[in-house]
Specification:
Blueprint lengths: L2 H13 L2 H8 L3 H15 L4 E2 L6 E2 L1 H24 L7 E8 L3 H4 L2 H9 L3 E8 L1 H9 L5 E7 L8 E16 L17 E4 L5 H12 L5 E5 L3 H9 L5 E4 H6 L6 E4 L7 E9 L6 H14 L1
Parallel strand pairs: 3-4, 3-5, 7-8
Antiparallel strand pairs: 1-2, 5-11, 6-9, 6-10, 6-11
Length: about 290
């Protein structure tokens, strides 16, 4: 049983496909396939059901996944503990919430790499709940996520609150009807929102349901600038972080709505699993540059 074979299996299980795992591992798809076949041959059982898309684990694969993750983490921690260097080294897997990618995927990670040249960040985007669960289950080393204000972290995860996020309702300055002043004014509105899985979208739906208002989603889009462009065309309303609106090139064509019944305070966290041998200075530096950027 080879270390690279185990790593390929965990990557495919996390990514849901051989092609995405190959991208994450910086190898070819055929190399990932060979490693999977070699691991399955050594164990004497299939670990993946390749007939489905995305790929799903067999019963044996589900039983093996958590043990393989622990094994990979143990090997990485042994390497970190015995490295002949005062600087952290090795791979660090960082998750980034979709709404925070512009904070984390560019200059902050570059600053961390300049300070720790032996560190190789591997970045993954996703919804905050999904990323938090991956940190808890050791599928990720750390993540930058959004949580509702006052929410506690799971027992297996530690973290630091590094900022606050304010969500605002956005409308076009071209709208031809009076702006909403209370939640009842939003009946019949069409929405331009993130796809399902977004915590902000779920919070908006709950608030509207409490007011007996159906949420009609006209457009789903991950990209906030695209959402704002559609709002500017008077295609509907959106719910976006205030800092996104402030930095948008379209802000002169948009207006924030203040609806007292709709308030979604969020907090920005960096979280990591515990223990976190050898990589604490890396997360501390990431915290520092993110706080500076915020």
């Amino acid at each position: 049983m080879e270390f690279d074979d185990i790593r390929a299996f965990v990557s495919v299980a996390d990514a849901g496909s051989v092609s995405l795992a190959a991208r994450d591992l910086y190898v070819t798809q055929s190399a990932v396939t060979r490693r999977l076949q070699r691991l399955e041959a050594s164990l004497g059982t299939p670990l993946l059901d390749r007939r489905t898309r995305p790929i799903v684990l067999t019963g044996a694969g589900q039983a093996a996944l958590e043990r393989c993750r622990r094994l990979l983490n143990d090997v990485r921690e042994v390497r970190a503990a015995t490295a002949n260097s005062d600087l952290p080294m090795g791979e660090i897997r960082i998750g980034v919430a979709h709404a925070l990618t512009e904070l984390t995927l560019t200059e902050p990670v570059g600053q961390v790499r300049r300070k720790f040249p032996n560190i190789a960040p591997r970045l993954r985007t996703g919804w905050s709940r999904e990323l938090l669960e991956r940190v808890r289950s050791r599928g990720l080393d750390a993540a930058v996520i959004l949580l509702p204000e006052g929410e506690q972290l799971p027992a297996e995860v530690v973290g630091k609150q590094i900022g606050k996020e304010r969500l605002v309702l956005i409308t076009s300055r071209r709208e031809d009807h009076p702006p909403a002043r209370k939640i009842q004014d939003l009946a019949g509105v069409q929405w331009i929102l993130n796809p399902e899985g977004c915590a902000a979208r779920a919070a908006l739906r709950r608030a509207l349901l409490r007011a007996n208002i159906d949420m009609v989603v006209a457009v789903e889009a991950y990209n906030y600038e695209l959402q704002l462009a559609l709002v500017a065309q008077n295609r509907g309303l959106s719910l976006v972080p205030e800092r996104i609106l402030t930095r948008s090139r379209l802000r002169s064509r948009l207006r924030a709505l203040r609806v007292p019944d709709l308030n979604f305070p969020l907090t920005i966290w960096t979280v990591h699993r515990q223990p976190f041998l050898g990589l604490d200075p890396v997360v501390a530096e990431l915290n520092r540059v993110l706080i500076e950027r915020l």
